[in-house]
Write a structure and sequence with these properties.
This protein is α/β, with parallel strands linked by helices. It has 10 helices and 10 strands. Strand 9 and strand 10 form a beta hairpin. It starts with a strand and ends in a 5-residue tail after the last helix.
């Protein structure tokens, strides 16, 4: 069954300060959904709520429901949730290990058979467009890769355990045009097999990549819909002001 992610009255607060205010959204399967909005509006908090990473932060209180295929993930073990919903961060986060061991780490953690690990690693590195660049240097420390290569490695690593959903928090913000294009091309292909949610400040990137766009402001979803409609015929004045560059 295709994965479907849905939030119902999702709220997050820290020390009495409400960051997310009763969010209700539905994420379509096998599409790219972009989350846009000004800094501090709650985009990253929302993203981290979708695989329970927000609960690792001190003082975070989550209310409401996050449903994956109808099951509330807030009642599941975090490890089970994060196997099904992977995440890649703004700054590349390779472990201080070899390229091979970076890729093998989640596979070993979840008990994959040793004889399958090498095959999976090669497959995912190829999907990330990285295999030809590193195939003769898999024992090299991953931290010696370029920034763009590190980010593609992190995406490949997230895919090793076959998540249903991939969350990306501004994955290209620190990359040059060439590496950004590499990742965008990869994501466009990946959505044939995965559901992708991406936070981005780059409105052009959202327009290029996303099938659906959510506009967030002050912890709320102001407007959501087909990306082409959001950018060409926004229904809310605040959306129109944001995408026209008046603020943000």
């Amino acid at each position: 069954m295709d994965p479907m992610l849905e939030t119902r009255n999702l709220s997050v607060s820290f020390g009495g300060k409400v960051i997310l205010k009763g969010i209700n959204v539905s994420i379509p399967p096998h599409q790219i959904t972009a989350i846009i909005g000004p800094s501090g509006c709650g985009k990253s908090t929302f993203l981290k709520s979708l695989n329970r990473l927000i609960n690792e932060e001190e003082g975070a209180i989550t209310e409401g429901h996050v449903l994956l295929d109808g099951e509330n993930i807030l009642s599941l073990q975090p490890e089970k949730v994060r196997r099904r919903i992977g995440m890649v961060f703004q700054t590349p986060t390779p472990f201080p290990l070899s390229i091979f061991d970076n890729m093998a780490y989640p596979l070993r953690y979840y008990g994959y058979k040793k004889e399958n690990i090498h095959t999976i690693i090669i497959e995912k590195l190829k999907i990330a467009g990285l295999y030809e660049e590193v195939q003769n240097n898999l024992s090299m420390k991953a931290t010696l890769l370029s920034g763009g290569q590190q980010q593609r490695l992190c995406i490949a690593r997230a895919l090793t355990v076959e998540p249903e959903i991939l969350l990306l928090d501004e994955p290209c913000s620190a990359l040059d045009i060439k590496n950004t294009l590499n990742i965008e091309t990869m994501l466009a292909k990946l959505c044939e097999h995965y559901t992708i949610i991406i936070v981005t400040h780059n409105l052009f990137q959202a327009r290029r990549l996303a099938h659906k766009t959510l506009f967030m402001l002050d912890g709320e979803i102001v407007e959501e819909g087909c990306t082409s409609t959001i950018f060409s015929q926004p229904q809310d004045e605040r959306t129109a002001e944001y995408i026209s560059g008046i603020y943000g």
